[in-house]
Amino acid sequence: MTEATGTPTSDDLARMAVELRNWGRWGEDDERGALNLITENKRAQAAALVREGLSVSCAGALPVSRGLEPRPGQHYMITGGDQVSEEARFAFCLDSFSIAPHGPATTHLDALCHMFYEGKIYNGYSKDEVRTDGAQKDSIMAGADGIVSRGVLLDIPALRGVDWLEPGERITIAQLEAAEEREGVRVEPGDILLLATGREARAESRGPGAPWDGLAGLDASCLPWLRERDVAVVGCDGITDATPSGIDEWPMPLHQVLIANMGVHLIDNVSTERLVAACRERHRYEFLFAIAPLRLEGGTASPVNPLAIF
Amino acid sequence: MTEATGTPTSDDLARMAVELRNWGRWGEDDERGALNLITENKRAQAAALVREGLSVSCAGALPVSRGLEPRPGQHYMITGGDQVSEEARFAFCLDSFSIAPHGPATTHLDALCHMFYEGKIYNGYSKDEVRTDGAQKDSIMAGADGIVSRGVLLDIPALRGVDWLEPGERITIAQLEAAEEREGVRVEPGDILLLATGREARAESRGPGAPWDGLAGLDASCLPWLRERDVAVVGCDGITDATPSGIDEWPMPLHQVLIANMGVHLIDNVSTERLVAACRERHRYEFLFAIAPLRLEGGTASPVNPLAIF
Amino acid sequence: MTEATGTPTSDDLARMAVELRNWGRWGEDDERGALNLITENKRAQAAALVREGLSVSCAGALPVSRGLEPRPGQHYMITGGDQVSEEARFAFCLDSFSIAPHGPATTHLDALCHMFYEGKIYNGYSKDEVRTDGAQKDSIMAGADGIVSRGVLLDIPALRGVDWLEPGERITIAQLEAAEEREGVRVEPGDILLLATGREARAESRGPGAPWDGLAGLDASCLPWLRERDVAVVGCDGITDATPSGIDEWPMPLHQVLIANMGVHLIDNVSTERLVAACRERHRYEFLFAIAPLRLEGGTASPVNPLAIF
Amino acid sequence: MTEATGTPTSDDLARMAVELRNWGRWGEDDERGALNLITENKRAQAAALVREGLSVSCAGALPVSRGLEPRPGQHYMITGGDQVSEEARFAFCLDSFSIAPHGPATTHLDALCHMFYEGKIYNGYSKDEVRTDGAQKDSIMAGADGIVSRGVLLDIPALRGVDWLEPGERITIAQLEAAEEREGVRVEPGDILLLATGREARAESRGPGAPWDGLAGLDASCLPWLRERDVAVVGCDGITDATPSGIDEWPMPLHQVLIANMGVHLIDNVSTERLVAACRERHRYEFLFAIAPLRLEGGTASPVNPLAIF
């Protein structure tokens, strides 16, 4: 560990990956990882948090284009109004879209097969299970029945008294715990932990920035804390990882350890703006949280529209 | 009305479309239609139905292929395990998929722009709002914040004492009310009404059938009942319409009147198999129901994975 | 060899694959295979065959759809006339299409990487060169500079005095040579051999048939003849192979031996209708033939519009 | 006309569009435009130019990607080597690609429907013929039988004694005629005129530049000369137009007048590098030129690999 910052070194991380690893914890055939921590009881308790009936979407607009630069998705009309007579009582429009869900601005749930670690994916399956015909193991189907649990938002900009964190800023365990205290919540087993870094507020003020500008996120030193708390899913308005990470061979230590080793699903590019507003207004940072990934067999991710319900 | 069956004639339906029409009911600029019937209070009551914490997915597998016949969607691996070394600690897979959400086997939510009626879409907007660059009005974004309400399942095969309804069979108001009575529920304003016809049980026994074989669904005579009960959304393991409808110019009267005239969103190709099993086991036919359409601006539909939570 | 028919057995074919193999013939690093047989001199002689200036397309319509069943390709309008004012002097339309070139009705040139034989592709490269990120060897770029040579059409239905061959009928060496004699041509090194089986005439009369109905084509016993004549490319209105082949493990012996072992590019689903008419009318069966595959790096095929010029 | 430069004003161009217009010249139902100028005799004369048998591709690499930024096309492997056993004698790979042919770096032939002028496309058809289900008039099928004629290259950098023209530089009639004289050729009716501006040489030296940096091309004052010479097709390593054009309402006067009014097909983003080298080496600037657009019904363009044959 580098003394000044507490950020682990590359060797620390290699050790940590093995120590925190959940391979085998839920059986040799498991493909669900930390989703196993969401029990029926947990879900029922989460539903009991709903009082007002407010539903808040935590997805950004699906970033599809209709032009010559279709990044990362496209939306095409198959049949439009231009093919329909004014008289017809039976007529309809159709469309089609394509999307690469891991796109850098797409709100998406990463499947556990998304990250390879030394030739393996979560639970020790071989990288070769991810083939041109789709992932044979650890696909997005792990969440096919819906991921519904208690959601807890940790609002780091509010803790710090700023509008947003700057790209590259790293959140520490101390800050996570300070945020818990400030909000009167405690992250518990089976929770879906949501992290706000103020990315959207920054983008509105400063422009969206480029992927290589970096993102605020967790310091790699938070990994043992996440294991101790046994979170089921982590979502962030960035990608959970602070980038650049500043660690050789570990450009995304949270992705590398959480997904491949700990079996924790991540939601990247969560839209936290509406959620933060709702939480601050109510001084309530826990809610029912529902993620409904598409049932895409063999998929390595799904675009999602996660809902927080108060 | 044809006396023998009660099924409306083409002229009856043209009158009905105007009489049941909700254009202007929620304001001239409205694009949400009957979703306005889902109040916060309604949502809170729905959440209170959750006792056990069981989450049931009501979507079928996303029908994508990876072969030469990509109907109606495709799934492609961008980066697979074949590009990754055994040593790498940082490596990942990526994929991409395309889908035409209205595909005949895709669990999808129809946007209100999906159906044109005499050159108009819901609330009287022109068909020309649906352009090659996407729907400018009544797009799928009406449901962007999530559609969360009480779900009520009417289990018609159980009512009839059969495993499934045959293609083309039409459910009547009398049967809907008999099912309510049998189940001890009553469909109320703002509800999401789910209809089981046993399509999946039939497909497992007899094969999937072709689109032109027809589907069981509601008789067009149910339209006034749906307006009276003020349902917010209707979902079915078929397409809500019984096909063939047997009425000239009205191949899908429920789609034609519910979507374009009444502003009611439909979910086609709901997977009801797991839901029916859960309801029968509990003798409980109401639950929290959450639909999270992708935030696809200008979209005419979204593939969805609707969740019923008990 | 099976005595009655002359059709080789599976063992015969395994021997033949090795005997006829051109691996190493044009160097260890070669990726062009029999295209090396098309010399500049050959091309100049082919151009000298042009007398009238008639250009005949040998492609069928690109089989794209715009509906919900996009097999095997799709065509979408990005910007159409519905977005343009009547006054604009600067306005334009844009579109996009996708295609899986090996589709069963697409006129396409197979790259030499298309077929794997015992884990290898042409010239002995490993199957693992064909990765999720494209073919690293033997891609369609072998033909990037255009494939221009003498084309020779062998009109088998005319030889037989029929309008078309039936699915599964197998053309023999004797028939190829009888067709040469009848037409007054001889297939020579570097030629592009085109085979008419009357598939389009049959489809117009009997309907298109399904892929599993089979196709007329060459008997596997023709392989040594093709090697002896040293053709550069073979095209057919079917897929060169007669299907079913009737030989275990060898569903497409021509594809298996010609592409993977001999390094001969094939053009599948050539439209021969216009070409046959032009040849019959002129009693001339040789012409300048030009194939211009798209420069698709890493591609395993290209849709093409081959031109015969008289 | 602005005196200093000879570049037409917006009003000049509006007059010119009408004066040079070829609507009706080849009949009221015509959709081929200036392709009608390529007679069989013309094609036969062009073929007679072939002496050596050298084939030169004039296309750049199809700009497809396999990553998260698919601009403007994508290439996906359907079945790769990772799905094939080492033993199989029958195994194959398949792929799929999508492309928006008008992409800013794609060598493509524009269909005559591509440009709208005051609500019309070539020959006076309505803009509304270009619908979400494809162009009903003036589609790329005009070139379905192949476009084969004499090609003439005008090598402007050589004329000017430079390696390349700078973005925005405009070629005048005087320069076109000086190039003719220098090369000993004369552009004649039915020719395919190819213009080299040195774009690739510049890109290799200075980087590719962004679309908004502009391109060298023809000054709008060349339009009457192109009409007088009756060229059938114009191709350029840019987009024929110099951009920016410097004329209000006329960002691409060549596209606006040539395609929509004169019915001349354009090839954008021709790769002239190999062609220029071949011509300079031989001191020969005329050759057989073959363009084989895909038979894409309703298409507004086709990616092409045009071949110059010496």
| Percent of residues in β-strands of chain A | 15-25%
Helix content of chain A: 10-25%
* Number of helices in the DSSP assignment of chain A: 8
The shape of chain A is globular
State the largest interface: A-B, 100 and 100 residues
| Oligomer description | homotetramer
Order of helices and strands of chain A: HHEEEEEEEEEEHEHEHEHEHEHEEE
Structural class of chain A: alpha/beta
Number of strands of chain A: 18
Largest sheet of chain A: 9 strands, mixed
Question: Stretches of chain A where pLDDT falls below 50 for ≥5 residues?
Answer: none
Rg of Cα set of chain A: 20 Å
Characterization of this structure:
- The structure is a homotetramer of 310-residue chains.
- Chain A is 22% helix and 22% strand.
- In chain A, strand 8 and strand 9 (134-135) form a beta hairpin.
- In chain A, the strands form 4 sheets. The first copy, chain A, has a 9-stranded mixed β-sheet with strand order 1-18-16-10-12-14-15-6-17, with helices on both faces.
- Chain A is globular and about 70 Å long.
- Chain A has 310 residues and is α/β, with parallel strands linked by helices.
- The longest helix of chain A has 11 residues, at 10-20.
- The interface between B and D is medium-sized, with 15 and 15 residues.
- Strand 7 (115-116) of chain C pairs antiparallel with strand 4 of chain D, so a sheet runs across the interface.
